Amino acid sequence: MPPLLKNVTSEVIFILLGFSEYPDLQLPLFLMFLTIYTVTVLGNLGMITIIRVNPKLHTPMYFFLTHLSFVDFCYSTVVTPKLLENLVMEDRTISFAGCIMQFFFACLFVVTESYMLAVMAYDRFVAVCNPLLYTVAMSSKLCSILVGASYSWGFICSLTLTYFLQKLSFQGVNVINNFLCEHTAIVAVSLSDPYINQVIIFASATFNEISTLIIILTSYIFIFITVMKMPSTGGRHKAFSTCASHLTAISLFHGTILFLYCVPNTKSSWLMVKVASIFYIVVIPMLNPLIYSLRNNDVKKTFRKLMSTKI
Question: Which of 60, 189, 247, 309 is the most buried (most CB within 10 A)?
Answer without folding.
Answer: 60
